[in-house]
DNA sequence: TTATTATATAAGCAAATACGAATATAAGGT
DNA sequence: ACCTTATATTCGTATTTGCTTATATAATAA
């Protein structure tokens, strides 16, 4: 199998999106488990519109999948993204969000749907 | 050896810097071989001040080393950077700059100092 | 010294960005 | 139908960004 290269412009777009600490942490969290907006608001300490706007950019770039479950909209990492290996390489170099998500659980702030 | 994680803020800074197609290509080129400013100007088709300003940002972030040789200032990738593995992972996913640098050579536009 | 070449810096500006406030939409419960 | 909760969108704004133009600095050669 021949190695596929990303286009420089496409890679730059992904890196620019991940080059913001809020969005980078969103990716850290959804890399552990899908998250709904209110969980990310809680985890990141920003306003709901701010989080929604970041999520929209990540979704527009196909880095995230969106799935509504009742009241909530859950976001998950898109493992089919052409740059997924680069994305995972980046996230692997960071402390993942597992611990923070567990703290959310302990405070009964996690949303469980199914 | 215990795995060292980057801080989210530090990683975000590196990604933001690489999230610009001009700077990302600068990194592609210096990853092949050290380059002077005028070579990068030629390769990237931007003004000398524009390139200088991009180089300064990369240098300030310690992603690049600077070395003067006579008239010229050569920039090379800093292999000691804490995020170097992430950086290399990104560059490995891109077509490297070898071919474009060879074309420069063929047009006698490469600067050879030592 | 003066001229030339390579690079850096400063100033100004248009475009992009990240945010909050206010408002709109969507879903479920009463 | 109404209310509440979760999310999205719109708008205004302060900040940042990437570039150009003009100028300054650094190194070498004549």
TrEMBL record, chains A, B:
It comes from the Bacteria. The keyword DNA-binding applies. Keywords: DNA-binding, Transcription, Transcription regulation. GO terms for molecular function: DNA binding; DNA-binding transcription factor activity. Residues 1-97 form the HTH arsR-type domain. Pfam families: HTH_5 (PF01022). InterPro entries: ArsR-like_HTH, HTH_ArsR_DNA-bd_dom, HTH_MetalResp_TranReg, WH-like_DNA-bd_sf, WH_DNA-bd_sf. NCBIfam families: HTH_metalloreg. This is ArsR family transcriptional regulator.
């Amino acid at each position: 199998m021949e190695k596929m290269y990303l286009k420089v412009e496409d890679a730059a777009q992904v890196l620019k999106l991940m080059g913001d600490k809020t969005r980078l942490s969103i990716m850290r969290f959804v890399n552990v488990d899908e998250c709904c907006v209110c969980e990310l608001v809680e985890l990141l300490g920003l306003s709901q519109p701010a989080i929604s706007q970041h999520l929209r950019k990540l979704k527009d770039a196909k880095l995230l999948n969106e799935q509504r479950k009742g009241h909530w909209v859950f976001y998950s990492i898109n493992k089919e993204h052409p740059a997924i290996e680069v994305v995972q390489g980046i996230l692997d170099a960071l402390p993942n969000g597992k611990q923070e998500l567990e703290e959310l659980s302990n405070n009964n702030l996690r949303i469980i749907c199914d």
